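About this split. The held-out portion is used to measure sequence recovery: a designer receives only the structure tokens and must propose an amino acid at every position. Recovery is the fraction of positions where the proposal matches the reference. Here is one held-out target exactly as it appears in the evaluation file.
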């Protein structure tokens, strides 16, 4: 009888050779994917700059053409109670910070309420809340905006025509934001919603309250995202534990319409199991046939789980150990998601996710700066916001975790605003007056 040991040694050597080759292939693939991610990330930075610029441009153009939004007419938001007319700079500063603290309290309360609803799975309440907000913006605020535009440009249309247009505009927006629709159309409505909300804030916030509000909201954004007990971090953590996505009305995505709550990059590729050759061993589990990369985790950095399925060694004496090593995984920690039974197609989720609140407050800063008709200050704030956003994306690439997008851009914008308006603009005006420069 032939000794089976030489066959076993050959099988082991074949398994080791296959594992080594697979290891080299995996490393080469990782290098190629890193190079691809650099190009892909730069592409999506541009895709993010364009909508942010469009949103700010819509607000700036409106502020410089329609006087309705640059004058509040003595009316203010209900959560800005300190609106006394005074010439004292000290009193104005105290009232502004008081209004900012009140607004921050409202934001904290509403965010905590959202967390409680989500924690106890009150999804219908949350969806109703978001649908009501979108309804007010897409119907009521759009009607007000359209009325002011038609009045400024002296456009005469029948009430029936305007009502028909606004009804179709609002219904289509509700469908794209809360149900499904073309990506470009959804992005258009999200940008429009952000611009309308920014215009409302600019109009109804007291004169000096805007700047403290931007500062305290940016600090709150930093705490809410990075603090271990921050509400936004709890929300994301809970969503990941339940393998759920966050609500689409809160997020702008440069990729497909599967949203996350914070600024981050995501990619998910589901591969059909039948496309992978199987050996004589048992079929891999559902999680083994899925390639995941850059999953956000509140406690740890975003990781990559890279799996390469290869056929087992073509010998009859392949052991269970060879079958286990036929699939090589490089991972810091493994994150599993349930996979639907119908996985016959490839689903990719790529892109930078930016919260609509970031769009709103960027536009508030630039729009308020443009309300003084000082283009030096407006352009300086615009550049500061884009540079801050670019720096935030750089930190995102380094730390590979969800980061707040407001603090760097807003504080850079505030610094540029006050330095340009109080130092650069008077200096340039004096040079022009003396005809030193033209």
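Reference sequence for scoring:
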């Amino acid at each position: 009888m032939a000794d089976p040991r030489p066959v076993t040694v050959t099988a082991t050597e074949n398994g080791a050779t296959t594992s080594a080759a697979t290891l080299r292939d995996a490393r080469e693939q990782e290098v190629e994917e890193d190079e691809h991610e650099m190009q892909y990330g730069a592409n999506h930075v541009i895709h993010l700059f364009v909508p942010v610029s469009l949103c700010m441009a819509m607000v700036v153009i409106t502020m410089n053409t329609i006087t309705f939004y640059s004058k509040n007419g003595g009316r203010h938001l209900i959560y800005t109670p300190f609106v006394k007319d005074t010439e004292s700079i000290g009193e104005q500063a105290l009232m502004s910070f008081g209004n900012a603290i009140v607004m921050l309290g409202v934001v904290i309360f509403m965010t905590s309420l959202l967390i409680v609803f989500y924690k106890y799975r009150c999804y219908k309440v949350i969806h109703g809340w978001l649908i009501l907000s979108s309804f007010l913006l897409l119907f009521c605020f759009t009607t007000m905006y359209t009325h002011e535009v038609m009045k400024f440009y002296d456009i005469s249309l029948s009430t029936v025509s305007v009502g028909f247009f606004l009804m179709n505009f609002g219904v289509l927006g509700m469908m794209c934001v809360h149900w499904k629709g073309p990506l470009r159309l959804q992005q258009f409505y999200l940008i429009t919603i952000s611009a309308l909300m920014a215009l409302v804030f600019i109009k109804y916030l007291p004169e000096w309250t805007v700047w403290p509000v931007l500062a305290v909201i940016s600090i709150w954004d930093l705490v809410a995202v990075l603090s271990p007990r921050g509400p936004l971090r709890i929300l994301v953590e809970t969503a990941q534990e339940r393998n759920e996505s966050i609500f689409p009305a809160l997020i702008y995505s440069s990729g497909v319409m599967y949203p996350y709550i914070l600024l981050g990059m995501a990619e998910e590729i589901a591969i059909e199991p039948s496309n992978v050759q199987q050996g004589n061993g048992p079929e891999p589990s559902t999680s083994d046939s899925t390639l995941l990369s850059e999953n956000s985790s509140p406690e740890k950095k975003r990781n990559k789980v890279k799996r390469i399925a290869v056929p087992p060694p073509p010998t009859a004496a392949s052991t269970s150990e060879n079958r286990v090593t036929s699939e090589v995984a490089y991972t810091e920690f493994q994150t599993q998601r349930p996979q639907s039974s119908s996985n016959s197609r490839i689903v990719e989720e790529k892109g930078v996710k930016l919260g609509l609140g970031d769009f709103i407050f960027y536009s508030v800063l630039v729009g308020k700066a443009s309300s003084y008709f000082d283009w030096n200050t407006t352009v300086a704030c615009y550049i500061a916001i884009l540079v801050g956003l670019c720096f935030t994306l750089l930190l995102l690439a380094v730390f590979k975790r969800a980061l707040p997008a407001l603090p760097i851009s807003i504080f850079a914008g505030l610094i540029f605003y006050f330095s340009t308006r109080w130092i650069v603009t008077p200096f340039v005006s004096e040079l022009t007056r003396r005809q030193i420069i033209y």
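Annotator remark: Confidence is low (pLDDT under 50) at residues 6-13, 256-349.
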